[in-house]
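A student in our group prepared the protein record below, which I am reviewing. What it holds is a sequence and that sequence's fold in token form. My question to you is simply how this chain folds and whether the tokens agree. Do not assume that whoever made the record got everything right. I have pasted the whole thing underneath without changing anything:
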Amino acid sequence: MDENIIKTEEELRQEALEESVVLSEDAIDTVVTEKYDASAIQVLEGLEAVRKRPGMYIGSTGPKGLHHLVYEIVDNSIDEALAGFCTHIEVEILPDNVITVRDNGRGIPVGINEQQGLPAVTVVLTVLHAGGKFGGSGYKVSGGLHGVGSSVVNALSEWFEVEVSQDGHVHYQRFERGTPTCDLKVIGDTNETGTLIRFKADSEIFTETTVYEFETLERRLREQAFLNAGLSISLTDKRDVDEVKEIYCYEGGISSFVKFETKKRGLTPLHENPISFSAVSGDREANIALMYNDSYNELLLSFANNVRTIDGGTHENGFKTALTRVFNDYGRKYKLLKDNDKNLSGDDVREGLTAVISVKLTEAQFEGQTKGKLGNTDITPLVSKCVYEKLSTYFEENPADAKAIFNKALDASRAREAARKARDSARRKSVLESNSLPGKLADCIEKDAVRTEVYIVEGDSAGGSAKLGRDRMFQAILPLWGKMLNVEKARVDKVIGNDKLTPVVLALGTGIGEDFDITKLRYDKIIIMADADVDGAHIRTLLLTFFFRYMPELIKQGHVYLAQPPLYRISKGQKHHYAYSDEERDKIMAEIGTGVSIQRYKGLGEMDPAQLWETTMDPATRLMLRVTVEDAEKADETFSILMGDQVEPRREFIEKNAKFVKNLDI
């Protein structure tokens, strides 16, 4: 067989995406054994390809993909704002989770498209890669899905309606699962211009949920309002009797964005106002705003044409390089760095930094369908030059701010050097990087990490029960006592060698921070097992904060779990039942009738080894929660709020989320 026609599944899927065709499942299943010829593919008409493989266009058919539908329609309105024709966007969540997006832009063209012989609006909504973003005078910069956004939303909707106000008339058309149910028609007169789109996500595609979360949409729309200074965006939730409406409009743009993020996280700024600057070169534009605070973490948000570049890219690279250079040149010039001192590192100068980088380009080159990373190399020198020249000038003109910011970076450098020495000392003493294990660790017999798990248990008494109740073949037990260090309020030098955290690091074997190596992980599952009370919740949070800040890959790769011990033991005669919530307790009591006794477990130590195994440790019967980070930025924000120094943001968070707390004796 000709080797040139033997292709991987991924290669064939990519070809299908580029040619708007989709491989049949039979072809995929046999791709490595059968000849790749005409019988292996099927050509899909119109928007069938989108419905066949929606994940290729919106990432997933879960909650993220559902909300992405709204983003795509809003992004089109944002593009109108970027072009200078839209000042207001209204988004509504109607009963039955119908979405309406209205803008006061020019309106999608309604004239006949010569290529298709159909109204332009119909073409935009039914043909992939049709739109005003491929050159010409339509849009100079844009986000979205490069001309497939509106048509993809149409294809994945149970029904979709468009109203275009243009040339004195209101034009209307309806679609069902991407297919027009009527021709474009005039339904009224108007003096306004703009586009209104109304759609209902298709439950045949979004089988997990079609319910929108107000906070998820709020976060995205507020972000877009920050990125487009002066643009007004409203979000209204009309699903309940009590209507909720928010309006976002920020004349300060990304400077307001930086201040908002700093305040929301309860951080104390080192200078009164954000530092902001911009640069323009030809068809490229860069806007940067930054503010330093007293925390030990950085928050760097970057965007290209209003699209969040979660994985960074060339614009972030230019920013980071220039920022580090500014600090070191400033330190050398004013002798704040001595001749024998090492240069500050990128991590040093970004400690406590909140920054927003927003660039706009005519031809943005994103890596991957979801546009997580910017690839335009010509934006790097623009950002780098802008940051270096204008931040250097700011330091010269604002010596007090410059001194406070530089001293923080210098302290960070000293802390990192102290941490490095502590790690080196630990290595020499065969602590962190040897076969030495913590004395209280009851290890398992199995040595294959994939088959093992470790329980990090609150308290010696519970640890004792866990040791007696476990399966020694594959389950290890590490008891911890007392409250551990809150790493959110401590630099790395205070974390290295901490007596409460060192046993965890030793047991896992991966090292932490710069030395972290996931391949050295000794257990596949890391299970936090704490009491179902406030103290237990605190210990879980402290451990999760430690993992998130210093071992994030453990969470990202799905190794961290929370054990779910029962709250109640319900007995009737010789039969026992366990309930993990008040609702389950009530259900069990209703089923077994009267004459029952109920034991409320206050702590793990109240269970004997057999009960602990049966309820919490036996893989056949236990309940566990896997810790995931769906939105790293949101998780970062939550840890900053809950574990930081400021009381007010934490109080607001607790009051807002108290309704979700169950089964804690508060």
In short: Residues 399-428 form the longest helix (30 residues).
